[in-house]
Specification:
By secondary structure, the chain is mainly α. The protein is about 65% helix and about 5% strand. A two-stranded antiparallel sheet has the order 1-2.
């Protein structure tokens, strides 16, 4: 049963016959007075009206979060592509022989030269191969292999920069 302890305020309102009949039916179904039924229905209506604003706010927030999610998924795809390209480059660099070590004359890979900077076998520095102080009597690097490796690195870096600028 609906009970409202303080019903000292009055609202004078003219309502259509159908609305009054609906309120009377509501009161009869619940076994309350017409005034109690009207108060209950007004409170429920006001609560529903307040929730409409909350629902609209939640729908707006959901749209914002959905847009943010889509943007993050696009950035994730770019990052995934970049990682794939870098993985392919590192695999190629690890297996491509680009020359021989100036100290022990064993083959060196692109990873030895550009990644580690030293010979995998004797740990000698390979910096002089990249920036020699004087030209060696016999070339220690395969120019074609180095060119292909550096070209591949350039493509990876350019691709990463283009995708990064689109994702920002």
């Amino acid at each position: 049963m609906l009970a409202y302890p303080d019903m000292s305020q009055v609202i004078y309102a003219r309502v259509p016959d159908a609305v009054k009949a609906d309120v009377e039916r509501y009161a009869d179904q619940r076994g309350v007075t017409l005034s109690s039924a009207a108060v209950d229905l007004l409170q429920r209506g006001l609560a529903a009206a307040g929730e409409e604003r909350s629902i609209a706010n939640l729908e707006t927030r959901l749209a914002q979060v959905s847009n943010d999610k889509a943007a993050l998924e696009a950035k994730l795809q770019v990052a995934t592509n970049d990682v794939g390209a870098l993985r392919m480059f590192s695999q190629r660099a690890a297996t491509t022989t680009v020359g021989s070590c100036p100290s022990c004359h064993s083959p060196i890979t692109g990873m030895d030269l550009l990644g580690r900077g030293s010979c995998a076998k004797c740990s000698a520095s390979l910096l002089d191969l990249l920036a020699p102080k004087a030209p060696p009597p016999q070339p220690l690097l395969d120019d074609r292999a180095i060119g292909a490796l550096v070209g591949a690195l350039g493509i990876v870096l350019i691709t990463a920069a283009v995708f990064a600028s689109k994702g920002a």
